[in-house]
Structures are given as structure tokens and as C-alpha cells.
Specification:
Helix content: over 70%
Number of helices: 17
Largest sheet: none
């Protein structure tokens, strides 16, 4: 071990291409989920339990998004953070004795990105919570796989208890609380639409800070725990070597796919029945959907990841899925760029205030291929994405030849 030098980013030969492809796939799902949130004050809708009005077509699209997309791709992104953490720490440990300090500095930079993203652009930031949860994840790096499984089981039990508590309240009590919140929330929604449509940038920031940023920061402790839970799953998978040595773990991945798929069937069916009101729990209907979405976020994310890993064993699927690698290698840049596009389109240009899922999906289907193309062209000439370069430069505190592509063709991986 060399204690006198800093480590260097991972080179091409050390990269795990499947991680880049899965990360790119996750970014598409995140775009699909976030585009409707850019169209209206979604956080205020959630805080005051207001369901925005949707057309019949959009109600059907909302159901499909809930079944196949909502919570699934954020979970995948989070699992990959846990995997990337292990890869980063493992390589850093080989090169330097200061790998804890190095990763902590990396998290501080990520926290800065997240805070600026949250305050200046959008309430839906995940980077800040990732950074804060990452500091807790550090304590699990040296833990054994069995220990991590025990923690995961404990987290699972606690989360089930917390989800169950809300269903012990009386329907009348819940109805009164919802009515009271919604009455207050209607005015908040109108205020938000007015500021977003007609306010100056300073007025917009001021409104967002009091009505969006503060509530998000108050909810950070819960978000940290849920993020850490998913990070630990990724860390466990990485410790088992599933991505590093897939052939050895192929049967394990097949079992994960099988059990996750069949667990997902009744959960997804329940979401559909609740949307169609075939199952109807009255005022608790939305809470039931939210609970099932959290569970399906895990089960279907396992299905998606294991499916991609198995498909990548076939040459034709390697070629078809390969373009996702480019956007996955620039995950941080592309994630922030999606925010700039969403805010620019619906706040800067308009229309803001009414959710139109059809338009949102069409925009996603246009934007994402353009992001793939842009990432491909950028990586032809540069080693890293622009924000990845800043991140690495601040992490390693060195202006390496980070921007210009070397003749060796080396590049780096990202933990996002």
C-alpha cells in the first residue's frame, strides 16, 4: 500500500460496462418520473395531499408510470451508488491509506452540488441526500456481508412498521386531516403557479426557499435512512462480486429475477386495482398506493437490473444496449442537465401549472436520445463529463489532465 500518494480514477480496463449501461437506463426512468414534476408544484401537491386533475388518458398513463416506473429507477440509481462506493473505496484502499478521507471529500463536493441544485433550481434533488447518507455508508465498508444483511433486515422491519402505523388511524380522523390540509393547500398551489409563471427570479427563489427548500431539508433525516437502505443493498451485491465476476453469480442473478418477478406481480396488480378503484380504501387509497409503490420500487428494480445483466450475456443485446453506456458515464452531468431542460421548458417558457403526461413522455422520448448522442460526442473528445471533471478535480485536489482525452484512451467511472 502506498500511503504517500493519492489514488487515481478508474481506467477503461477496470470499468464495468454493465454498470454504465444500467446507470444510463436508470437515468431514462428518472427523466420519465421527473418531467411531470417540472410541470406543476408537485411538492406542494404532496405536502397538502392534493391530487392534480388528470385527463382520462393521463390517468391511464399515471397508472402505467406507477406500475412500471415510479420509485423503480430512483432505487436502481441508489443501488448503483452503493456498488460504486465499494468500487471506489476498494481501489482507493489499494493505492493510499487515506481512502476514508478521500471519499469524505468526494461526498462534500457532491453535497455542494446537491445544495446548489436544490436551492437554485429544483426541490427534487437527490444529490444532497446521497452525500449525507454516504457519510453513514462509510461505516459499513469493512463490515461482513452477513452483518450488512442483518442491518438490511432490521431496516426492513422498521420500514414495515412505519408504513403500517398510518393505517391504524380512524378513517374519520384521517379524512378531517386531509380536508384541513387540502383547504390550506389550494391557496398554496395558486400562489406557487402565480410565482412560477409571473415572478422574477429573486421572487421565485424566495418562494421556493420557504415553500420547497425548507420542507425538503426538514425531511432529510427520513430520506437519508431510505437512501442508506438502498446503498447497503448495492454494497452487499458489490461485496459478493456480482458485477465483477458475473459468470460465477449467474445462477444467483437468475434466482433474484425469478423471486422478484413473482413478488412484483401481486404488488403491481394491487396498484392497478387501486387506481381503477376496484379495490377502494376510501381516504386511505392514496396511502395504499404509496405503500405499494415503495415495495414495488425494490422488487421491480431487482427485476430490471437482473434482466439487463442476463441480456448482456448475448451479443445482440450488448450492441442494442451499448448506447446507454455513454449517458451512464456522464450520469451527474446528465442528471443536472435534465433539471435544466425541465425547468427551462415549463418554468422559463411554459406552460406551467397543468400536468400533461402525454407531453411529458413525448419530451422524454426526444430529450433522452439527444442526451445519449451528446454524451457520445462529448466522450469522443474528453475523458469525463464537465461536472464529473469538476467533481474529480475537487476530490483529488489536482488539475490532472482531466478534460483532454489521453492517447491511452483512459477514462473514469462514476459512483452515480
Amino acid at each position: 500500500m502506498n500511503n504517500g500518494t493519492e489514488t487515481s480514477p478508474i481506467s477503461t480496463k477496470d470499468r464495468i460496462v454493465s454498470l454504465d449501461i444500467i446507470r444510463g437506463f436508470a437515468l431514462f426512468g428518472i427523466l420519465l418520473v421527473n418531467i411531470p414534476l417540472f410541470q406543476s408544484p408537485g411538492l406542494i401537491h404532496d405536502l397538502y395531499l392534493i391530487s392534480p386533475e388528470l385527463s382520462k388518458t393521463d390517468q391511464f398513463l399515471r397508472m402505467l408510470l406507477d406500475v412500471f416506473v415510479e420509485t423503480k429507477f430512483f432505487t436502481i440509481f441508489s443501488l448503483l451508488f452503493g456498488v460504486g462506493f465499494y468500487i471506489f473505496m476498494n481501489r482507493a484502499e489499494e493505492k493510499t491509506g487515506r481512502f476514508y478521507r478521500l471519499f469524505s471529500r468526494r461526498l462534500l463536493v457532491l453535497a455542494l452540488f446537491g445544495f446548489l441544485h436544490l436551492v437554485l433550481f429544483w426541490y427534487g434533488d437527490i444529490l444532497l441526500r446521497y452525500a449525507l447518507a454516504g457519510f453513514l455508508l462509510i461505516f459499513f465498508y469493512k463490515r461482513k456481508e452477513k452483518t450488512i444483511l442483518i442491518w438490511l433486515l432490521s431496516f426492513t422491519i422498521v420500514m414495515i412498521i412505519l408504513l403500517s402505523l398510518s393505517f391504524f388511524s380512524s378513517a374519520d380522523s384521517v379524512d378531517q386531516q386531509i380536508t384541513s390540509l387540502q383547504t390550506e393547500g389550494v391557496m398554496k398551489v395558486e400562489e406557487a403557479i402565480e410565482v412560477y409563471q409571473n415572478g422574477s427570479y429573486v421572487e421565485w427563489l424566495s418562494f421556493r426557499f420557504s415553500s420547497e427548500v425548507i420542507p425538503v431539508l426538514l425531511n432529510v433525516p427520513f430520506n437519508i435512512i431510505t437512501s442508506l437502505y438502498m446503498f447497503l443493498i448495492g454494497l452487499y451485491v458489490a461485496k459478493r462480486g456480482v458485477f465483477h465476476n458475473f459468470p460465477v453469480h449467474k445462477n444467483f442473478v437468475k434466482r433474484v429475477w425469478f423471486y422478484s418477478f413473482f413478488i412484483s406481480i401481486p404488488i403491481s396488480t394491487g396498484i392497478i386495482l387501486l387506481h381503477l378503484r376496484i379495490l377502494d380504501f376510501g381516504v386511505l387509497n392514496s396511502q395504499m398506493i404509496e405503500s405499494l409503490l415503495m415495495i414495488s420500487g425494490l422488487s421491480l428494480s431487482f427485476v430490471y437490473v437482473s434482466t439487463i445483466l442476463l441480456l448482456l450475456q448475448k451479443a445482440i443485446w450488448k450492441r442494442l444496449l451499448h448506447p446507454l453506456r455513454y449517458i451512464g458515464r456522464m450520469a451527474l452531468t446528465n442528471y443536472i442537465f435534465q433539471t435544466l431542460i425541465g425547468v427551462g421548458l415549463f418554468v422559463g417558457i411554459g406552460p406551467y401549472g397543468e400536468i400533461n403526461l402525454r407531453i411529458g413522455i413525448m419530451i422524454s422520448l426526444i430529450v433522452f436520445p439527444l442526451q445519449i448522442l451528446g454524451s457520445y460526442l462529448w466522450l469522443k473528445y474528453f475523458r469525463y463529463g464537465p461536472l464529473e471533471w469538476v467533481w474529480r478535480t475537487l476530490t483529488y485536489r489536482s488539475l490532472r489532465k482531466s478534460a483532454a482525452k489521453m492517447n491511452t484512451g483512459k477514462d473514469s467511472s462514476t459512483i452515480l
